[in-house]
Amino acid sequence: MKPRLLRIASDGLSREVQLVPRSGYAFEARWRSIASDGNRIIAVGGAPGGAHSNTRWTTWAGTNAGVTEIPQPFDTFGGWGAGDVIGPVLTTAGPVIAGSWAGARSGLDAAVWLPVGGRWVRQSSAGSALESTPELLVGPRSATSAGAGVVLTGSALHLAGGKVRQSAAVWRSGRFNGGWARVDLPDSGAKGEAVSAQCAGRNCVVAGYVDDVVALWRLSPSAVARLRDVPQVATNPGSPIPAPLVSGAGIIEVVSAGPNVVVLAGGDQHWALSRGPVGRATSSAVAGGWLYVIAEPAVGPGGLWRCPVKDLG
Description:
The structure is a single chain. By secondary structure, this protein is mostly beta strands. The chain folds into three domains: 1-71, no CATH class; 80-227, Tachylectin-2, Chain A, CATH 2.115.10; 239-313, no CATH class. 0% of the residues lie in helices and 57% in strands. It is built from no helices and 26 strands. It has a five-stranded mixed sheet with strand order 3-7-6-5-4, with no helix packed on it. Strands 8-9-10-11 form a four-stranded antiparallel sheet, with no helix packed on it. The protein starts with 5 loop residues before the first strand and ends in a 5-residue tail after the last strand.
């Protein structure tokens, strides 16, 4: 059974996007990540396969009119040295796929693949901020676009000085795969991680965890600060946090907290907390005045839920 792809239009209605699978694993794949600029779509799916049930990655590209699988050789994302595939990013300079790969110096590096014809080609991370070292391990978790550049969210594991410390961090490029720099997010506590981000140009809102509590940061090219007065929502750091939904100074953040989804709505000062559906939130969006949330319960299939944005306080 091939995966489905629904598009939520500006009128708030969902419409199915035609998919054209071309390989056997494409029919079994579950979506890992999807990027769209409103019309263009690139996506990565995965399905377990082979003797060890390692993930077999599938890449897709198209528009709202239809999305076609672009088959890749096994060693594009698999084989010796393979790490994880986070997913695709659509920058104003072109598409990118982000993930991780075995580093030459230590652990896994953050990795970037760029399109060359019909193939995705991994770029070297050596000598850049994406490279892990014996003193600092790079841990990317998600990716998004920031104008012509890419923003990776995750954590930096500091190993120097005989102490281990995990701080929330982002890595951002100036354009495509050039000019990478790491930004350690402030007030990361004893253990922090950045999980997702949404950017308007070069200005971003980053969501993550600090000491098992949800945290938000504002990030610009010249400054970064943790948002204050965000309600203290305790949650499992292993749970996903959908990217913040940002409109001007307003922010909506959907969080998995215990058996229910929790929705935080606010900005730099006043915040409101609303309880959502049962399950773990895997993605969210705002369209047509509605907040849409995909929540996956502990047992059974996930569901698409919606709530009027005006009811979120």
